Amino acid sequence: SWGPTDDGRIKPDITAQGVAVYAPIASNDSSYGYLNGTSMAAPGAAGSLLLLQELGHRFTANGAPRILKSATVKGLAIHTANEAGLYPGPDYKFGWGLMNSSEAATTLNNALSSNNAISSTDLVYEDVLQNQGSKTYTIVASGKKALKATLVWTDIKGVANNSLNNNTPKLVNDLDLKISSGNSVVETWNLNPANPSEAAKRGNNKIDNVEKV
Question: For the chain, what is the mean pLDDT?
Answer without folding.
Answer: 94
